[in-house]
Amino acid sequence: MNMEFWLPALIVLSSLLPGLVIFLLREEQHRFRTTLNLVGAMVKLLLVGLMIWGVFHERVFETRWTLAPGLDLVLHADELSVLFVTLSTLLWLVTTVYAIGYLENTPHRSRFFGFFSLCVTATVGLALAGNLFTFVIFYEMLTLATYPLVAHKGTPEAVRGARIYLSYTLGGGMLLLVGAIWLQTIAGPLDFSQGGILGDIEGLDPAALSWIFLLLITGLGVKAALVPLHGWLPQAMVAPAPVSALLHAVAVVKAGAFGIVRIVYDVYGVEFADSLNLLLPLGVVAAVTIIYGSVRALSQDHLKKRLAYSTISQVSYIALGTAIVGPVATVGGLVHLVHQGLMKITLFFAAGNYAETLGIHKVSEMNGVGRRMPGTTLAFTIGALGMIGIPPVAGFVSKWFLGVGAIEAGAAAWIMPVLIASSLLNAAYFLPILYRAWFRDAEPGSAAMSPRKGSLETHAFLLWPPVATAALALAAGLFAAAPYSPLEWAEIIAVREYRE
Amino acid sequence: MNSLPVWLVVLPLAAALLAVVMPARSAWIGVLAGIATFLVAIGMAWQVAETGTLIHALGGWDPGLGIALRADPLSAALLVMSTLVALASGWYATGYFTDKDQQARFWPLWLLLLSALHAMLLSADLFNLYVTLELLGLSAVALAALGGGRAAVAAALRYLTVGLIGSLAFLAGVALIYARYGSLDMLFLARVIGPEPATWLALGLMTAGLLLKSALFPLHFWLPPAHANAPAPVSAALSALVVKAAVYLMIRLWLDLFAPAVSPDLAWLLGLLGAAAVLWGSWQALRAQRLKLLAAYSTVAQLGYLFIFFPLLMALPAGAARETAFGGLVLMALTHGFAKSALFLAAGVIQQRAGHDRIEELGGTARALPVTTFTVALAGIALIGLPPSGAFLAKWQLLSSAIAVGQWLWVPVVAVGSLIAAAYVFRVLGYAFGPGEGARKALSDGREELPALLLASVATAVLGLGAAAVWQFLAPMALLPGAS
Lengths: 500, 484
Fold this sequence. Notes:
By secondary structure, chain A is an all-alpha fold. Chain A contains 20 helices and 2 strands.
């Protein structure tokens, strides 16, 4: 068989098969399990590299398998899926390394890594989904694979957090399902296509299309944590650090945001959605979420909770960029999909390191931690500065394009204040952390004074992942104009979405 | 080669007799017969796919005089499902019954039940349908009482009464048809039956009997105690196969034989009862204290989905859309058959190891019985209707048809029913993964855990990924008439 058919399927299988094998392993087979995990991640990265090269040269990769009349499982590689698939694959590799270090000598590791692989499989499947039906399948699979990860610790708190997560996401999944079925019933099987498809179909009822849009976006908004559907996210941070990192950076939250991008651009088409007056409400919800998340983050003393509210706020930049009509804002939203992932995963890795190495969970305990763990704190600092939007870290690029896009679309009057307020709020909740970590002295006897156990500040597998992702976040900002950079790729997508 | 349908009836019957004669060897006989019938069913399905509907007149008598067996795609598909479920449950039963005496009583009844079930799925005339329905009901009652104990016997007696009333109503309908049309051959009747009072009365009687037997809300009262108190392999067969046999007859009567005489309004009534069953059954399953009772109420709900298909099929014009919806109905029935039998078998394992099946005390089960817990999860995915199970695709087609014909009522019913199903499945899993002593860590017995896992995987993976084959297989079905 040819590569054009098999490549997308292989990318999905490269984490599915290791995951299934891992379930069957005994706890003590950790060497085999680690090898399997890393080999799977490397193979996937290699295959994705092949796909990037192919898509850049306009090769068409598509796996198609008929499940039922009118329902095809389609895995298709276009520029947008490549953007997301690359992000997931890269961060999966890093997070796997981190998780191996983080979970060393804890029970139930086969179960953990099994579901971990399924979770990534679902994310990659979402990225490659070529139609709404396939997207729904992987969206539900993601819910199922993440639930045991959130509940992993087995404490009553973890079980409760997982149950809340599940009720939100299954409910959202049902709305998405009904919306998808309704749309397919009136418009036929819909393969995603750049520029949208619904605008070309005659005789569709605009009212029905608006209702469907509402169903789809509400269903996706649960995972994307749009206010008021965000309630599960702060609860889900009871998960182990690598899970939180993946959840906030690529898997769940990002899957929701990615879905919104797909619906607006590749199903409705941004101009057609605008002509139905659907984008302004989406933009308003996104703006409210951005401000709300930041305000709530201010008052959280628990570090992971502060980061969780920050995610609620930051991910909505993607939805905001999607809701503004105009290629520049599109670029801003799309590139933030990658940039937010790099920065947020760094922050969660670092938070995990503080908790794991020093037992520090709260911002108020972080005095002087920079001297004890300089590498981790440096990475955290880069991530935080990027979130605020300080150049040259990647976050600045996203905000710049969003701002320029808003001006270009004539929506500057209400979007600029949102962006400025959000940046100020970001500074207000991140800078005090940095100040404490670097400039305040640790109190004698506090965790930050505890001596090192080895030559490094923490386990090597815990230290290098945040350093690597921080470096990537920096590089994505510094070399934003280089070929194959996330920005460059987002610009290619934007050009193809606007078909004038 | 046309005699394959005959073997499906004769093999289990002969094995049942043999098991009576040689009780010490009955388990061997039962499993061998299970393997053989499964292979025959596969072979027959193959033949049906190749050459179309098979008709076999026993002893060479013409239909109308002698007994004829007919295997069309619908019955072939259900036969493959039921022989596989029966094989896995039988394999499981060899390890389940520890008491030699019980073992010896189980097998003849079990094989008789299968013989009756196969004969019913293959019958081509109404009288044989009645006879096989009666045989099926009686052997099911005997099996349900096998566990002994007051609760089981009381439930079985109620089951017996309900079953007898149901078959009597059915028989009265059959007699009426014979008096009016002078024949019981379904192929002949399908050509002559028209909309007139005698037909309506007959259909009403037969439908009433079948609804009682298929436990459609509010006639479901007898099912939960009977299914929850029977031995696990019996519960599996009762929930997965026996109630479905009555639904099969409903499909035959409403969509085939009496199609010219039924009105869409009556189909609406079936749908409404189905919707009530979905909501009520799921809600009761959520409130159930015991795992097997949960599984039994879940059957009430799942049967409800099948009845929601009736008004949709009546409203859809003949053609591709209708065939798609019909395939969804069959896929739903098949998936439920595999998933529910898997769930009952898994519940049996838990009950034997832990000494109880109280849901709130299942803590630690995931650690003690990982394979069985995994089976419960897989079966649960199919019961909720999540991908990649066959039920997901079936529900998609159900909702799609509902939207297409504008019967919006079913959309929230299916959505809410599925969410309640998710709640009851994850309630069990939540306790199973929670802390606790769990089941006794006995030597894991592959004979008990593997058949359940096999059935659950068929429901969730095979039927999901290979579902296109179901539609392809059913495509030549000639039974669908145009909507009136």
